[in-house]
Design a protein that fits this description.
Helix content: 25-40%
Structural class: alpha+beta
Radius of gyration: 14 Å
Distance between the termini: 17 Å
Order of helices and strands: EEHEEHEH
Largest sheet: 5 strands, antiparallel
Strand order of the largest sheet: 2-1-3-4-5
Number of strands: 5
Shape: globular
């Protein structure tokens, strides 16, 4: 099986919503905007899935500009020190760690 990345939004109202990775990638690459998220910051979780099983999950806060493209500067800051995320005491305002409850919700959403 090939590793797949699935994206989810942890909405402010508590919902877990799927995020289309193809559209998201286009917003990152500035090829196509996601105007429904213009000017917003989303709490996004990514799940690495292999054969329907979640192998790992990660979280980041994703900022969209007024046109609906992912803010490049903030995205770079969120991944710049990704190798340090597991270090004790490391803090990055753009990164969050999914709890076990969050991971369970993602597993259920994947089915």
């Amino acid at each position: 099986m090939e590793l797949e990345v699935r994206l989810f939004i942890f909405a402010e109202d508590g919902q877990l919503l799927p995020l289309d990775k193809g559209r998201f990638d286009q917003a990152v690459d500035r090829q196509a905007a996601m105007p429904e998220f213009s000017g917003q910051c989303l709490k996004v979780a990514g799940a690495l899935v292999d054969g329907g099983e979640v192998q790992d999950a990660f979280g980041q806060f994703v900022y969209f500009d007024e046109k609906g493209f992912v803010d490049e500067v903030k995205l770079i800051e969120s991944i710049r020190y990704s190798d340090k995320i597991t270090e004790e005491g490391y803090q990055n305002e753009f990164v969050w760690s999914p709890s076990e409850e969050d991971r369970d919700r993602i597993r259920k959403a994947i089915g």
